[in-house]
Description:
carbohydrate metabolism, 3 domains, 8-stranded mixed beta sheet, 4Fe-4S, ILV_EDD_N, globular, lyase, Glucose Oxidase, domain 1, 4 iron, 4 sulfur cluster binding, alpha/beta
Amino acid sequence: MTVDRRIEEVTERLRERSEPTRSAYLKRIRSRISAGRPARGHLACGNLAHGFAACGPTDKERLSGDTTLNLGIVTAYNDMLSAHQPYERFPEMIREAAREAGGTAQVASGVPAMCDGVTQGQDGMELSLFSREVIALSAAVGLSHDMFDAAVYLGICDKIVPGLAIAALTFGHLPAIFVPAGPMTSGLPNDEKSRIRQLYAEGKVGRDALLAAESQSYHGPGTCTFYGTANSNQMLMEIMGLHTPGASFVNPNTPLRDALTREAAKRALAITAQGNEFTPVGEMVDERTIVNGVVGLHATGGSTNHTMHLVAIARAAGIHLTWKDISDLSEATPLLARVYPNSVADVNHFHAAGGMGFLIRELLDRGFLHEDVNTVWGKGLRAYAIEAKLGEGGATVKREPAPAVSGDAKILTTSDKPFSANGGLKVLSGNLGAAVIKVSAVKPERRFVEAPARVFHDQNELKAAFDAATLTGDFIAVVRFQGPKSNGMPELHKLTPLLGVLLDRGQKVALVTDGRMSGASGKVPAAIHVTPEAKDGGPIARIMDGDMLRLDPDAGTLDVLVDEAEFAARPAADPDLSHYEFGLGRELFAAFRHAVGRADEGASIF
């Protein structure tokens, strides 16, 4: 199938724009490859002895020679967070699988994993975005021992996978496979959870009812089941060929999940420089791979966070992805999936309807994806248009073609009958700068809002106005000084139930912010990641209460309707932000706030 002209045009200009940085990147990793890395065989005896001192006799004997393949495990395990708790068992499974394949495996490093669900609306959320950089740095420390022929990355949630991807591409001379743990089984339906959240916001139910609903929704091991950043991560890793086929949405602690994990370990050893299928991740991930990831994001209505994460991941491979690329790909890509908050279905329902295999086949058959890419499974993305099942004996994986018909056309549809002709994410531009909006969950009649501004410098100020019943009439809430330079760019989901209540009362409301809302962005139109941010001198800092704002996702615009000369002459607001600088470790991240780049450049310190 010929690639759609619009997809190919974006790919070609991405390739041309990236040529200088991509060439320099490839030169660096090829230099590492040609030097005969890893250096384990060249280490002094004392160095090497330190590297395998804690191993058992068999592994120690193997590592003391020159031919054994050694797999580095980078894990985000902790047992407080549901998504990462299943990883407790993975290192031993991987070690056993490596031994069966004649190799060894060692945990190279642990990386932090924080949960935006735990920190939502709390001070700790201000460390969330920067944790991506810490994860990349932590993985680099482990891999810097240069003991490994390939690496497997155990991570699943919001900033963890992007941070691990940045690290993997920094060590692009090594093969890399990402190993998911899977979503928790379905609990209380997400729409019911949201209904109770709104009732709580209105004071109609108490904390006991709210906690009961939340506990029934988030009830066991695995990722949350709504289609937020964590599950968008898994979609991306599969459609970019960094998972083994069919691995994304198999539940934790099941025989199939364990078989997929063992298979990933053996496959990682099979694609090292010592074999016939050498697949260094830095060469595998190219401009076509990145475009495939963006297309997948749009086709599924994925997380807005990836308008930053994909930019940062691409740049780690020397590829210069822009918001315009993302926006143009949105216009070319049909929306084929509806998963909460875009419908009542969760990711388990999506998987049961045909999941990633069905989605990839549909996009390939209509030319929306590059098929001729390299993956960890070999040449060509068509190998991912499958359904993974248990093989004979229950310990191996077999694969069958993805189902020909969607199991539920309300959740997963065909490319000739899309839910929308274009993707669920859009980039806005205007005299307020650039912003991102997720429209896939917003009803068409609610998307356009022209209304006076209500300006806040903190989400708690908006909540106080809601509690005081002063948020009357139509308005656009402007919550500013929430960008990465101000306070680390926290997610502002604390506002979602409040604004949802006002919307249900018949008010026209929207949100404009230089902060984040992420993949759980719901029914309220929200122009987020406004760039330049207020702290960086962006026009959003000059908005005043009562200014008319126009948010028009269909036209792709975000503007303040004030005389141009008058608006330019206004001084920017300059609030005291010192309360963002201390407590819960925020003081340790001052250098990050100072060094971080713009949201449209990945909001990265690298």
